[in-house]
Amino acid sequence: MAENVIEIDGLTLRFGSVPVLEYVSLTVERGDFLAVLGPNGGGKSTLLKVMLGLLKPDSGTVRVLGVPAGEAGGSIGYLPQHTHVSGSFPITVLDAVRMGTVSTGLKRIAGFGGGQDEARQSRRALERVDMLDHAHRALADLSGGQKQRVFIARAVVDDPELLLLDEPTASVDSRSRNSLFRLLAELNRDMTVVMVSHDISSLASGVKSVACVNRSLHFHKAPELTGEMFRMGYGGEGELCCPVELVTHGDVPHRVLGRHREGDES
Question: Where are the annotated coiled coils located (predicted)?
């Protein structure tokens, strides 16, 4: 029997009187690569923050890596949605990754710098994402895709068991996006991956299962969207909604759209 790394049961969360997530249940097995899809404002990023323990649900239970959410510490790597770096901020690629190590972070809080072990650890992480040759460049000088690789290196520098990513490809071009998907598929060999996205093309490479979130959640243990999931996440009713199926081989998914109504040739 597969081991569960995430177990959510009956989760409900409100911001004031506004329901954001309602009666959500989800189980993620070790080694899975889960894409969390859905419209903007549907609760995807909120769900990720609940997994991290940054937000507490109003009801329901959340366990991550066998403990309550927020208690797994360095066993979780996290890439937030917004990772803007000012062009005037003087930090190198290597130092940015070193800030992700638990020991270096604690030392800097206490007023001490990180040591050689942290530097070696960070170089290994940069090598893992094919960015070691850029270790001493200024982070602000990198392209969008290169920066995302550095931030992913920072998220995996402590070899986490679980990697959580919030819209990792939102700010990069299509070539960099496909390259990042291949990188995440490689990382998935060593860790469970949960990736939030609003882009259904994220199913093109490496994803093993899908959760569609729009206040409620529908899970499918395969890299495809069912008609029910698409209607729940993206709207439409009956014949007015095109059923969507994604064939997930190659760099770009093939989309097969059914007819809207009988006799429609479009």
Answer: none
Nearest of 194, 220, 218 to residue 206 by alpha carbon: 194
Amino acid in position 226? T
Domain ranges in the chain are 4-82+160-257
Helices and strands, counts by H and E, the chain? 7, 12
In this structure, are residues 248 and 204 in contact, taking their beta carbons and an 8 Å threshold? yes
pTM: 0.82
Output phi, psi for 120, to 5 deg: -65, -40
Confidence band for 178, pLDDT divided at 50, 70 and 90:
confident
127 vs 134: CA distance, rounded Å:
10
User: How many residues belong to the chain?
Assistant: 266
Domain 4-82+160-257, CATH among 3.40.50.300, 1.10.3720.10, 3.30.470.10, 3.30.70.3400: 3.40.50.300
Task: List the beta strands (DSSP E) in the chain.
Answer: 4-15, 18-29, 33-37, 59-64, 67-68, 76-79, 162-166, 192-196, 209-214, 216-220, 244-247, 254-257
Dump pLDDT digits (tens) for 39-57.
888 999 999 999 999 999 9
- Band of the pLDDT at 19, cuts 50, 70, 90? very high
Give the pairing type, strands 4-15 and 59-64.
antiparallel
